[in-house]
What we know:
Bound molecules: 1,4-dihydronicotinamide adenine dinucleotide
Structural class: alpha/beta
Largest sheet: 7 strands, parallel
Amino acid sequence: MSDSRECRVAVFSTQKYDRIFLTQAATDSNVQFHFLEPRLEPDTVVLAQGATAICAFVNDRLDAEVLQALKESGIDLVALRCAGFNNVDLKAAEDLGVRVARVPAYSPNAVAEHAVALVMTLNRKTHRAFNRVREGNFLLDGLMGFDINGRTVGVVGTGRIGRVFGRILQGFGCRVVAFDPYPDPEVEEMGIEYLPWEAFLSQSDIISLHCPLTPETHAMIDATAVGLMKPGAMLINTSRGAIIDTHAVIDGLKSGRIGSLGLDVYEQEENLFFKDLSEEVIQDDVFQRLQTFPNVLITGHQGFLTRQAMEEIARTTVDNLRCLSNDERCFNRLV
Ligand code: NAI
């Protein structure tokens, strides 16, 4: 194992926690991080000049234009510090000879447990109770929930995260059903039953999305799907925003077909999330409409944010950079 080739990495979309965990993981390695706060897009790609690689996150733009600009700056190595890669034009990367690696698995528990947090908060309204009690209002009106025990919980995508979510809900005493075009016998052995899409939608009291964003899953929760859902069902999305058609879901909330909605991701999140916009007028009317519902809970893409997940993300990212910069085999390489 040679650490000889220095790997200078421009890190885009840096947050305080990225700096801490990546710096720690790169100790005694050939990887040197240069931390940048801006998001990677055509206007900011110039900031990477002088680097040999870049490190990007979920909302950094890695389309053909950006990849071409990186290549022209002599950068042919991209390390994603996330699992999803829907923001990368892999075909363009391949054509340009830009190598891309990701962190396929870190802590599935982190995201699954956050999805459970959304379920529990929406159901028992602890966020509202917290505010009321602080203001000395001890009335319980409007705080009624339902027993999770005995409900049917539907998991879309029984991969690493979906199956952990299913197992946790089984622990609550739920019947867990799933929809996935690639059923896994191991998941069936856990007692999770795969159902066809229509039956899945109509039987689930709680639906949680854990599939990747692909052309097939884009807007898979559309008006038709909402119409098939059990009246009053809870919908949770910790996967990628564009898996749901937000307009259809807003209509579903207005009609009561959707009883509550928990989001950790949003289709246009790159304009909002990971920034302090508390002094600004938010221009996204769809997002603002979502915020008006008392039965909608939104978190800003924090499913991954546990110490254990951050350590694993940083360790794997440094390892990917080390392997690729030394022309060693990298198991997490996408192209
Ligand atoms: P995975 O690759 O282990 O599992 C994905 C599952 O989705 C697979 O079982 C696959 O067969 C299934 N799937 C594929 N196409 C489908 C379709 N059309 N309908 C239903 N299921 C389908 O992925 P993993 O690690 O479980 O992550 C899932 C997603 O969670 C990621 O793609 C990412 O978008 C999201 N994520 C969100 C995070 C957050 O912080 N909120 C952090 C990490 C991941």
